[in-house]
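Board notes, transcribed. Complex of a protein with 2-phosphoglycolic acid.
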Amino acid sequence: MATPGPDLLALDFDGVICDGLKEYFQTSWLAYCKLWPDTDPVAPAGVAERFYQLRPVIETGWEMPLLLRAILEKIESERIFAEWPTLSHQLLAISGFSTQQLTTTVDGMRDEWIERDLPGWLAVHRFYPGVIESLRRWEGDAQLRAVIITTKASRFVLELLGQAGLVWPAADLFGKDIRQPKSHTLAQLLAAGYRRIWFVEDRFATLRGVQQLPDLQTVGLFLAAWGYNTASERQQAENDSRIRLLPLRAFGSADFGEWQAVD
Ligand SMILES: O=C(O)COP(=O)(O)O
């Protein structure tokens, strides 16, 4: 029997729909230089590469300048991967900044960049192959509601989707502005009557968090194999009975049966 598809598809943005890695590094570097004004504005060689490699530890924007701090302080990658939730709060305390100050600085640098050079800002993003076509198809599907749940500010998401020719309904976008964890949004959608919610996210820790919540036991969990996660996290998803490792090819398929197929 064919597996029924979702009645609500909840999609993360950065690392599932859009690859914003290069932009995030550049914006975070600008923010870093503003927060620590003694910094040479030219990033030392190798910093960007380490930032790309360590991106999977990050949940949201305020952590980005602190990740740069950790890199510049030569903290080993293994320690950052193993201890980031604790380490980021230690770095935060030492920095003397609040999470709000870090967020405002990162988003402020992004706003300034957009203001100064919108084409340049858009050009450092890349939508993953086939994703815009899938979003269009789901938007036109009466049996299915597709929503985006992201820790990015909504205005940036709408700007990027607009550039790709997609007018995304504001009601189907839950950005950082709503100030609640993704798990709360999923719980609200369940409470609104959706029965088969599938959540696609590239951050393994976020899926693990949802997995542990008794109220969200019915939510289907998919790790986007093409996003910001490590080989070890993809392996853990492959060995997990609930979290499924989703290849980009299956994500682009109109047949939801392919999402469940074992590779
Ligand atoms: O851009 C961010 O801060 C992270 O965004 P995401 O929740 O869409 O992965």
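The chain has a mean pLDDT of 95. Residues 12-15, 60-61, 150-152 surround 2-phosphoglycolic acid (CB under 6 Å).
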